[in-house]
Specification:
heterodimer; A: mainly alpha; 12 helices; globular; B: 144 residues; mainly alpha; 2 domains; 7 helices
Amino acid sequence: MTMISHILAANSLITAFAAVGILMWISGAISKYLTFGRIHGSAIAIMLGLVLAFFGGIATGGEKGVADLPALTGIGLMGGAMLRDFAIVATAFEVDVVHARKAGLIGAVALGLGTVVPFILGVFVAAAFGYTDAESLTTIGAGAVTYIVGPVTGAAIGASSPVIALSIATGVFKAVIVMIGTPFVAKMIGLDNPRSAMVFGGLMGTVSGVSGGLAATDRRLVPYGALTATFHTGLGCLVAPSILYFAVRAITGG
Amino acid sequence: MTISGVALLAICTLLGSLLGDLLGVALGVKANVGGVGIAMMFLIAARLWLVRWGLLSRGLNTGVEFWGSFYIPIVVAMAAQQNVVAAAKGGPIVVIAGAGAVAVCFAMVALIGRFSGPVETMDEIEAREALEASVPHFKSGRVG
């Protein structure tokens, strides 16, 4: 037993790869058999991650979720700011500028609104719950944009870990509602053509939420929605820790 | 070479965070201002440049795409190391902000759709394409 824990601790990053991989297998199975593909495996995996962090935090009394367990310190490195930013930047490689032009003006408008409107809403909700400092307000607002923009913004402007956890949870919750709710409101919001799918992708953000929601509505719409949604995170990571943060700072006077 | 892709990604990420920090200093805040977003723009520009000069090799692609495909697992690891116990005390904020954001965005999809006039639905497009596809087939048939 001590030998196993020694090996796990000595190879912490490798252990983290294995642990996250197993978590993603379980999530994939839950997605397939319990939700019939309605909720993406990735969203379930992130939620499970948050749940594990909760129990890890209770078990160790620490502040870094499961990363406080000696065998799982590698999770801290794997999910730390360094590798996270590295992987997020890499996703930009798949952005096709030629395709981006197809989305055109309406896609750009949707993207802009899809970043600013949820942000403002998130800031107001955070303010209503008693947060007053610009860093927390901005991070929770950014979490309402997507679960990536939240932590990236929080780390960049120096928000606290509980606030970052809140912003991730907000973003994941949003993605899950988009996945489940889209088929029910599709008719009401006119989601039956490529253009509205592109507008939808730009406004909703999260690629997993958009592709999951559209797939349940009409599979043919998925590429159009994903097309604008792929720009959402990049745009959010660009404006949330800069322009939007300064706007919040100017208003709070902090 | 795979390492060229990883190196390109690393250089873009480093440049982005450097510029983000510099911007923070210039603007007088203790923060990295949009570093990740700037790095993404560098990477998009680099890709365009590589494609134009025919330098985008398969190995280079692999190097970057591996890390891109690693993004969700890394986000899962990130979620697993947050201070959720402290965040749980702020519970309802998650539900209200998340649900509110979705509701407002659904409404905006409907509004933009209404204001920008009618367009062909997916069913209409497929019907038209099926019709167009059947026309040349018919001509090349026994007519001539």
